[in-house]
Specification:
Distance between the termini: 29 Å
Structural class: alpha+beta
Helix content: 10-25%
Shape: globular
Radius of gyration: 15 Å
Strand content: 35-45%
Largest sheet: 4 strands, antiparallel
Strand order of the largest sheet: 1-2-3-4
Amino acid sequence: MKFSSLKPGMVVYDVQRHHMGNTTVMTHSVYKVHVLEVHDNHIVASWNGNPPTKYFEGGVSRLKKNEPVMIRSAMGYSRPATRAEKEALKSN
């Protein structure tokens, strides 16, 4: 996302990749980011209900406007859906 498209009060999403416990299995998590203030070179936002922090251009660029569709496996990890999977979900 760009600074110009953000407005105070918006809810955007952050996707982060991390390990599942003490294993080598990777999973993705989606967190809500509530935009509180928009300035020229940074925003002030609350991530996952935590106290507000500053996000600069690098942190803002990875935020998503729409909530990402995640696919959960039988092993417990989740990953972002591919384009084909998103289209199959829309047609159902």
